Structure prediction request, 108 residues.
Amino acid sequence: MALEITDATFEETVLNSDKPVMVDFWAAWCGPCRMVGPIIEQISEEYEGKAVVGKVDVDANQEFAAKYGVRNIPTVLVFQNGEVVGRQVGVAPKNAYAEALDTILADS
Prediction:
């Protein structure tokens, strides 16, 4: 299951992680976000132990969404060693999210 990440836990969970981290920036009222949500949950299960997968509700947690230029949702960012190494804005097929993690995992 994808982790619920807040502004208070973002640094510890995402920036200080020793594994790649995929973060879904979303909101409850966002239709496309509800389409991406189940895909992110599947990715979370499939990459358990290899990568961290989490979700940030942008309505309740605006600090890091603003810091990373999230202007449209859903936006999925991939972090490695505290740096953004991938970005997907809008709805994408599951394989697009998986490939982003696979590329990082293959390089490490």
About this structure: The beta strands are 3-4, 21-26, 52-57, 75-80, 83-89. DSSP finds four helices and five strands in the chain. Residues 74 and 90 are 5 Å apart (CA to CA).
